[in-house]
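Components:
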Amino acid sequence: MTTSITLSDLYQRQITLIGEEAFEKIRTSRILVIGAGGLGCPALQYLASSGAGEIGILDFDIVSASNLQRQILFEINDVGRKKVEAAAEKLKRLAPFCEFRIYPVRLDEINANEVISQFDVILDCTDNFHTKFLIHDTCFKNAKVLIQASVYQFEGQLQLFDFRQRLGPCLRCLWPLEPLDGCTATCAEAGVMGPLLGVIGSMQAMEALKLIIGKEHINNGETLFVDLMSREFDVRRFQQLKDCVCCVKQEHRPKEILQVDLPLKLDEFVIVDVRSLEESDQCSFIKKLKEEYTVLQIPLEKIDDFELANNQKYLTVCARGLRSLKACHFLRSQGLEVYSLRGGTQHILNMENV
Amino acid sequence: MKIKVRYFASLREKAGISQEEMTIRSGMDLRDLYLDLSQKYAFPLAANEIKYSVNNEYVEPNIPINENDVVVFIPPVAGG
Ligand SMILES: [Zn+2]
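Structure:
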């Protein structure tokens, strides 16, 4: 029964409105949704059900019971599963003609370029300033379209940055320095209602689709404020900052990040295990890595005895990510490009077991 | 002079209201007004941690307020 369903059976209503040619643009679109949470779930659902060609889903997190109130792709049975896997499985049943790519990682300075460069339109559905600014700067660098949203209690804010011509205004024209995470309450602290995320996440999907088919949309230099308590929608405009570090000076962000998840292209790194030999011999994860990659064993207390080549990227590793962070600090002070594996090998092994 | 003030996100939560009309002395700029209201409502954010908008344009905090302006204080928001 299901195998006989065709594209036009699924998408007829939409084709009636926008036409075959516009629908073809949706069919060939490549959209990345970063954060499969409250905003990401409704956005993903509508992008998939609208016939997007290729959808990327990036999220490092695991479904928990408190998510279900608003993260509508997940069910009770999904609690404990990786969000990207549960989401892709559900969406495939809804949109068999769509290609899904999943990234069960935290976005960081190492993987951001690599992932974002593979898509045309990026939806920022994340919940912290640090990641939002990383996504923003990476989208500018890679000349992508970014559709960004944030919520608080009964309110949402949406912005669309079309960086295809690498022109501003950009988010750093408004906030030259990113606000510190913790300066405002998160959804966990302030609380949030599910339907707000349904509205704002769906609007992100709608803006993406309109942009893809060439209709009018939110412009660079505008914030759309949505207040579901007072039922008000309004747009506020901002100007380009004449010395903006991002869209005017185009300065690259310093590599300030020390801790990362397991990089997607591990072969670009020399792995440095900073535990004692005995400890590292008992670790099944490092054993597996040694089969495929270059792994050096340098216990933390001996790290200053070694001279490492500086034409190479390094990833320091230990059991919990503390010693590796110390080693990372030290090696950076020697001028090397080094990152520390966040949470250590135990975190990786725990993730593999869920 | 009479103006309207609106509060967003964490400032609305702290003030306990979405908006209010008030009379202010002329010559006051946005930053002065925010500092006064911060005293009244114990806002958690400093004057340089928020954005200011008048009549649907983002503006710098040092611009003077005019009669009948709609002033909005906009804190950073990241929830998702
Ligand atoms: Zn800018």
